[in-house]
Design brief:
Elements: H1 2-14, E1 28-33, E2 36-42, H2 51-57, E3 69-74, H3 86-93, E4 97-102, H4 112-119, E5 123-126, H5 130-136, H6 138-146, E6 150-158, H7 175-187, E7 190-194, H8 195-201, E8 216-220, E9 239-243, E10 248-250, E11 253-257, H9 263-273, E12 278-283, H10 285-293, E13 299-305, E14 325-329, E15 332-338
Parallel strand pairs: 3-4, 4-5, 6-12, 6-13, 7-8, 7-12, 8-9, 9-11
Antiparallel strand pairs: 1-2, 1-3, 10-11, 13-15, 14-15
Helix pairs in contact: 3-4
Length: 342
C-alpha cells in the first residue's frame, strides 16, 4: 500500500505537464527516506531534465540518497538522448531501492533501464499501479505500440441530434464547456478538421479561453479549396494540410500530398512520421463518421445540449456506444466514451 501511495503521487506530479512533454512521456518521481518524502520532480518539457533528475536535484541532504527509495511512474530511460540515461544516474548514486509504476515499451528502453539498475545490485520492484501509469501515458504508448496517434472524437449536438441549424454554424455549448474544449486543445498534440468544416466555420483551432500551447492544426483538403485568407492559414500554429496536389512547406504551413485510396491508413502513417502522438477529430460529420466506421478511435467526447432543438441541419454522427462517464456543465452535458475494442 505504501508503494501505491508514492506512485500515486508520481502520477499527480506527472500530470502537471500534460500537453507539454511531446515527444516524451509524462513522468513523475518521488524520493522517500524513512517514510518521509525528501525529493520530488517531474518531466516538464522535452530536452529538459527527466523526472528522476529533478527529484534528485530537489533533495537537500544528498547523503540520505543511498538509504532512500526512488519511485518513478515509468521505467527510467537507458539511452542517451538530449539528456543522459536516468538509469545510470540511479546506479551511480546507489539508491537502496527503485519502485517503477509501468515499464516503458519504447524500443530504446523496454526493460533496459530496469536491467541496468538490477545488475548494479539495487532492489527493483515494477508494476505498481501499472494500469494507472499506462493510462497516464496513453498517448505515448498508443503512438509507439500502434504506430498512430491516440484519437479523440469530439462534437457538440442539440437535443434532437443536430450539429447545426439549417446547415449554418450554430452555437450549441455554453461558456463553461467552451473552456473545457479549449483545455482539451491545450492538452492534446493536434486537432483535425475536414474541408467542409473549414469552409463553413472558418475555425482558428487555437487555444484561447485557457493558458496553453496551440495544438498542431491538421486540415484534410484534397483539392485545396480552403482560401489562404482563412484562419487556419494564420501563423499561430504549425499546420499540416493533407491534399492531393502538392508537397510544400511555406513557413508554418506544411502541404503533404496523400492518396484518397486507403486514406485513413495513409493518414495514420503520415501522422506517425510527423510524430503526432494525440489527435482530436473535430469534424464535421463526414470526417467523424469515417473514423467511427473504421473503428479508428480511442476516446469520444460528446457535448449535449438537451434543451436546444434545432429541427433541421447536419445530423450528428451515428454512434451507438454507452458512455463510461457523464459530466454536467450547467445546461450542457459532456459524455465521455472509451473504445473497449482498443
Amino acid at each position: 500500500m505504501q508503494d501505491e501511495f508514492y506512485i500515486k503521487r508520481c502520477i499527480e506530479l506527472a500530470q502537471k505537464a500534460i500537453g507539454k512533454t511531446y515527444p516524451n512521456p509524462l513522468v513523475g518521481s518521488v524520493i522517500v527516506h524513512n517514510g518521509e518524502i525528501i525529493g520530488e520532480g517531474y518531466h516538464h518539457k522535452a530536452g529538459e531534465n527527466h523526472a528522476e533528475i529533478n527529484a534528485i536535484n530537489s533533495v537537500k541532504d544528498k547523503s540520505l540518497i543511498p538509504e532512500s527509495t526512488i519511485y518513478v511512474s515509468l521505467e527510467p530511460c537507458a539511452h542517451y538522448g538530449k539528456t543522459p540515461p536516468c538509469a545510470l544516474k540511479i546506479k551511480e548514486l546507489g539508491f537502496k531501492k527503485v519502485v517503477i509504476g509501468a515499464m516503458d515499451s519504447h524500443d530504446k528502453v523496454n526493460g533496459k533501464g530496469k536491467k541496468i539498475i538490477q545488475d548494479s545490485g539495487i532492489d527493483v520492484v515494477s508494476g505498481i499501479l501499472e494500469k494507472e501509469c499506462i493510462d497516464l501515458n496513453k498517448r505515448f504508448f498508443t503512438y509507439h505500440e500502434k504506430k498512430r496517434p491516440y484519437i479523440i472524437l469530439k462534437w457538440a449536438e442539440s437535443g434532437d441530434q443536430f450539429l447545426d441549424k439549417d446547415f449554418n454554424p450554430t452555437s450549441i455549448s455554453n461558456s463553461l464547456v467552451n473552456q473545457f474544449v479549449h483545455q482539451l486543445r491545450a492538452d492534446e498534440h493536434a486537432i483535425l478538421v475536414g474541408t467542409q468544416t473549414a469552409l463553413n466555420d472558418n475555425p482558428s483551432l487555437t487555444v484561447r479561453n485557457v493558458k496553453g500551447e496551440n495544438p498542431v492544426r491538421i486540415l484534410i483538403d484534397f483539392d485545396l479549396r480552403v482560401p489562404k485568407d482563412f484562419r487556419l492559414y494564420s501563423n499561430k500554429a504549425k499546420t499540416l494540410i493533407f491534399n492531393s496536389v502538392k508537397d510544400e512547406v511555406v513557413e508554418n504551413i506544411h502541404f503533404i500530398k496523400i492518396g484518397k485510396e486507403n486514406f485513413l491508413q495513409n493518414l495514420m502513417n503520415a501522422l506517425y512520421k510527423e510524430q503526432i502522438q494525440s489527435l482530436i477529430i473535430e469534424g464535421g460529420r463526414f470526417t467523424l463518421q469515417e473514423f467511427i466506421n473504421e473503428d479508428l478511435w480511442d476516446e469520444a467526447i460528446v457535448i449535449k445540449n438537451e434543451n436546444l432543438k434545432l429541427e433541421n441541419g447536419t445530423k450528428s454522427p451515428e454512434f451507438n456506444f454507452e458512455p463510461n462517464e457523464t459530466l454536467s456543465f450547467r445546461d450542457n452535458m459532456i459524455e465521455k466514451y472509451l473504445n473497449k475494442n482498443k
